[in-house]
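Re: [ENG-882] Designed sequences occasionally contain unexpected residues at chain ends

Forwarding the minimal case from QA. Structure tokens:
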């Protein structure tokens, strides 16, 4: 399972890089069209940049969950023991897990709603945009379960040593 999660994380990083590179094209076209006569003003560039931005946010949030850099807020006093640190992290993980379940449940309904709609400008089915929410929730669940597993292993290894503090 760890191999799959590592692969998923790597794919998220590659897709994020690709989307940021793609985002540069419509935004540059919008800027050039606004301030010069070189490029005509296209309507699809605004929609394309918005769609890329939505996916960049969701994929970036998934990467940040795995890295522990986005949702981790120090609300609890730091503990000196490993078990106290793990409990503090697990409270944060549980919060992220609950938000991920909300994203999956309500995101699925949102994606079904998007399936019944097409974009007026590009004609693209909106499910390709709306599916970003449940996919983000699913990846958050996988990454958080991995973190729970690692912390449980850390606690069991710490108990084997018989040491509660560092």
């Amino acid at each position: 399972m760890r191999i799959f999660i590592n692969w998923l994380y790597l794919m998220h990083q590659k897709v994020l890089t690709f989307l940021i590179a793609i985002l540069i094209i419509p935004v540059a076209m919008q800027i050039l069209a606004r301030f010069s006569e070189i490029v005509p003003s296209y309507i699809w560039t605004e929609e394309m940049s918005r769609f890329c931005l939505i996916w960049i946010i969701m994929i970036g949030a998934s990467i940040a969950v795995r890295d522990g850099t986005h949702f981790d807020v120090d609300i609890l006093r730091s503990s000196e023991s490993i078990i106290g640190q793990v409990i503090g992290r697990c409270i944060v993980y549980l919060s992220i897990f609950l938000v991920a379940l909300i994203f999956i449940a309500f995101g699925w309904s949102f994606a079904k709603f998007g399936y019944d709609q097409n974009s007026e400008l590009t004609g693209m089915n909106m499910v390709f945009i709306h599916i970003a929410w449940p996919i983000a929730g699913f990846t958050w669940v996988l990454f958080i379960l991995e973190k729970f597993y690692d912390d449980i292993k850390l606690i069991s290894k710490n108990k084997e040593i018989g040491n509660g503090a560092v």
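QA comment: On inspection the terminal residues look reasonable. Residues 2-35 form the longest helix (34 residues). Proposing we downgrade this to a documentation issue.
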